[in-house]
Design goal:
The chain has 592 residues and is of the alpha/beta class. The protein has 26 helices and 19 strands. Strands 1, 2, 3, 4, 5, 6, 7, 8 and 9 form a 9-stranded mixed β-sheet that branches. The protein has a 7-stranded mixed β-sheet with strand order 15-14-13-16-17-19-18, sandwiched between helices. It starts with a helix and ends in a 12-residue tail after the last helix. The structure holds S-adenosylmethionine (SAM). Residues 342-552 form the O-methyltransferase C-terminal domain.
Length: 592
Amino acid sequence: MLLDDAARLRAAAAFVREYESATLLPLLLPGLHGPELASVAAYCRFAHVGILLFPRDPRDLRDLLAASGLVADTPSLPSVVVRERLARRHRRDVAELDVQILRPRVHGPAGEPRAVEVFTLAVPEGSGLEPIAAHERALGHETHLAFALERPDPLVLRGLCAVLTRHGARPDGGGYNPHENGTVLYFTTPDTTCGYRRLELYAPGDHREVLAAHTSECPGTNRHSETLLHLLTGAWTTQALASFARLRLPEAMDTTVATGIRELARRTATRPDSLATLLRYLTMLGVVAEESDAADPNEPDEPSDGQGAFRLTSLGRLLRADCPDTMRPLALMYAGPFYRSFAALDHSVRTGQPAFDHLFGENHFDHFARDPELADLFDRSMAASSRMFRPLPAHPVITAAAQAATPRTVVDVAGGNGELLGHILTAHPSLRGTLLERPHAVEAARRSLGSLGCGARCDYRSGDFADVPHGGDVYILSRILHDWDDDRCREILRHCARAMPAHADLLIVERLLPADGSPSLATAWDLHMMCNVGGRERRAEHYARLLADAGLELLDRSPLPLEAHVLHARKAAQPGPADDQGHARGSDAGVS
Ligand SMILES: C[S@@+](CC[C@H](N)C(=O)[O-])C[C@H]1O[C@@H](n2cnc3c(N)ncnc32)[C@H](O)[C@@H]1O
């Protein structure tokens, strides 16, 4: 069970008031006793309990302290050490993390001046920092007991480090904070009977030499092992999120009021204790948040069940079926057919062939097309990223077409279930649309565009890329080229080029591989394309070359949400090699 922030503060203050160095040290380091314990206790005194909190608004913090019986009468200081640790652990830029320190005073049993050290990272709604808060709240990586050196002498500091490690403490990093000219050395401790598992030695002054020796002894392999464990268990994340969606938990939860486990189990026909295990994991992922273990607000007469109460976060809300930008179909897809194919990724790497085809015996478009339920799930999972399409109706090519004196036609080539065309036609009542797709998708598009009220302005063509309708004004290839290898892309682009009148524009929606190797969703989708469809993501220059091979010229590009881009191309002034090769024309069907 996770305590709320006020309860954590009260518990920390009570601990600080109760313990002496000499009684506390053996709880952390069993085996430290007798004269050695007396000597260590004489050199370092118990100074504070450190905790990390995540207020929505930092201005609430002093009220929270007051509500916990604590007063911070000094200004807050910027944290260096904890901030860097958080940035490293969560792979964030330090600039994103404004961590502050306050030290409300508390007295020890004999009136000694001590403190509760309160680190805060403000997590405003929608800041994207919720997963960090959820992870840290659940695992308490920064919670610690601190001992301050009475004589901050490098020799004493080294001696204390040696004694602590001899009794099982393991170096766990540290740092120097220039804002207060103090050095901290962290250790993890072998015993957690006192409820804490990290110990800090605090030495006033700059002791970076000792610090360097201490951090060099941090088993780098330990940090690496921890990182690797997080990476290796990525599959659990995919499946836990899909399970969450399949069990309809997001729909059973509220974003503002927490619901008790028993009630949630009743609503989703699950076992309360097993559900609690899943929800605790999902708390770490930031899709749900655990609230204090109060009685269930939905059943105020029922006593608390001791298993906590959970609410849906804004991140988790995206997995609700009724959320406008729902990503539920993607959760089911990535944990379903694409999960199975990823297990055969080696095959793709060895042979260059899609693991999906190897596993299912056919290309994924054919496989999905044969199963109406899967086909529908695939179409909906493509539409789940429709946030990507939102700026497209305002693209200059589309607005120019919409403002033209005579009605213009937008041709969406392999337009899926019509999500993008629906956005464009809804925004511009003067435009007409043509959607080319395989037969099952055409039917889905007909239904979806009809329900948007723009069905009457749309033509539907069942066919293949060779059937790209002639005579349109704007052609769209959205997330098509990344499904195919370069040869097939050239073919598709040539079909488009042949169908496009001289004045027509082509818009291509794709993710672009970064030129500098910086992390991007495109790099992940490059792997996905290789494994599942035999396609790939590309850099902008790569698309420019493919376009040029088809007699088209890349004019510009602009960014879209979800790390996508829209590339704008037209027919090149000079005929490209494609036009010289005299390929047979596709269907001559024109746009009406
Ligand atoms: C990745 S989806 C993209 C759908 C849509 N353009 C979007 O961005 O949401 C690729 C689409 O290509 C269609 N497709 C695959 N092979 C095709 C072919 N030979 N001719 C026409 N469409 C095809 C599939 O049915 C699928 O809807």
